[in-house]
Amino acid sequence: MRDIVFTRRSGWIPNVIREDGELKLMLGAGADVNHAPRTFTFSIGEAHLAVIQEDLARHLLLWSAVLPLCDDAGTRGRLDENAAVALLDPILLAAPADVDALFQRLRWDRGRLIAHGADIGLLERGQVYAAMRAATETSNGKRAQEYHANRRRAERGTVLGPLDAAILKYTGQYLHGATVPRRMPDAVEPALLPEVMRVIATAEQACAGMRIGRDPRRGKRATDKRDWDRMATTVDAAVRRAHPELVDDAVRTVSFLMCSEAADRSRSTPMEDDEEAGGDRADFGVSARKTILSFTDDKGVEKKWVSDGPRTASAEFWEFVGDRSAGDNEVFTIEDEEMGEGIQLHFYADSTARITTVHEGEGGSDPEYRVEYSLVDGISGYRNLVSTFVRGGCAALEQHGPWISDVAEFERARRRRDAQ
Fold first, then answer.
1. I want to staple 5 with a disulfide (CB 3.0 to 4.6 A). Which of 16, 206, 254, 383 is the partner?
2. Rounded distance, CA 309 to CA 291, Å?
3. Residues 167, 251 contacting (CB under 8 angstroms)
4. Under 8 Å CB-to-CB from 7, ≥6 apart: which residues?
């Protein structure tokens, strides 16, 4: 039989219950293996109940000291009830100075007290009892998050100025640096917002006209890491030059915002059509353009493209790559069966091969092919290769060499490139 004897407005602050005639403190903390909240109890006396009912500060201090014991219990272990009971008298019944001395020796949940209004300055100076004079039953979790975020920055030697903090709040990264940034002007104090917007304007001007392209090798929504790094470097340099007073955290969050927005714009558009928007502009003549192509991957899946379809070959091919590319599927081929030529892209090695038919097979013999290899510089290099092949065939790829027919010589060239 369990009865609630005392509870506060905040449901997370430990309750006092009577179970089978015995007074116990009951609190929820941690989670079990199924991620359901765990509940712990341990015995208390009538004197402890009286203090808990009358003194919110000591009640919260006890809670903060017991929580580490709950953490030690993990997902299925038992609470060390002896250790919990041993905290009762020193926290609930001892003099304030003795409480402060105790908290110098034991583990306790600082964030819990800060969320309930503890004076941070007094806590930092070890005056935990006095820090709880302003304690409240209601919790402000954001206050504790801000404290921990600033403490992590301080451990890295970073101290935010007012403008630095305002910029991080504008991007939503003040509390968590891993959060995807977004524009939140309402989170900034009105007096600082114009200064924040001047920094943002500097970044926007620096990357105007730049874009982050798609990288289908890494999936349908992946973007080009080189484009991202190029934009981030450009924005960082411009912001640091125009606003040298900003700390690294503020500068990085601005470049992260610019890059994230550019990447989102790229992801929200159809796969780029390189024959219209990129690649070499040379005209190889109407007769050189491909009319029927076959796309295949390393798993034997094939897709046909014909020129009278709604989309161009490049767009169709890169969509095929985006759908099919994976860690165990990194070789893709484009073949013009009628002309007896094709290119094979080796994403795992940043290389390609162009394949041309030297002699057709006769009398049941196999055809004779010429295979030549070349190194490729990132996704932009692959895009140029594909669009050039689609518009001009293998002959047009000469400019993308050097092309090497000897496999051993090519492997040496690839190793030299990778060693740089």
1. 16
2. 10
3. no
4. 13, 15, 16
316 membership: H or E segment, kind and range: helix 313-324
Lookup: tokens for 375: 């190194």
Side-chain-facing half-sphere of 46: CA atoms under 13 Å: 1
Residue 360, phi-psi category: left (phi > 0), alpha (psi -120 to 50), beta (remainder): beta
On the CB side of 263, CA atoms within 13 Å amount to 23
pTM score: 0.74
Written as one letter, the residue type at 334 is I
Quick check: bond before 367 cis, omega within 30? no
Query: Do residues 352 and 334 make contact, with C-beta atoms less than 8 angstroms apart?
Result: no
| Residue range 175-221, pLDDT digits in tens | 987 789 999 999 999 999 999 999 999 999 999 999 998 899 998 88
User: Do the bridges between strand 2-6 and strand 15-19 make them parallel or antiparallel, or are there none, so unpaired?
Assistant: antiparallel
- Which element (helix H / strand E) includes 111? helix 110-115
d(CA 39, CA 61): 19
Single out the residue of 23, 19, 99, 21 nearest to residue 60, CA to CA. 99
C-beta of residue 26 within 8 angstroms of C-beta of residue 41: yes
Question: 237-244 long-range contacts, Cβ below 8 Å, gap at least 24?
Answer: 237/206, 238/202, 238/203, 238/205, 238/206, 239/199, 239/202, 239/203, 239/206, 242/199, 242/202, 243/199, 243/202
Distance CA 227, CA 262 (A): 10
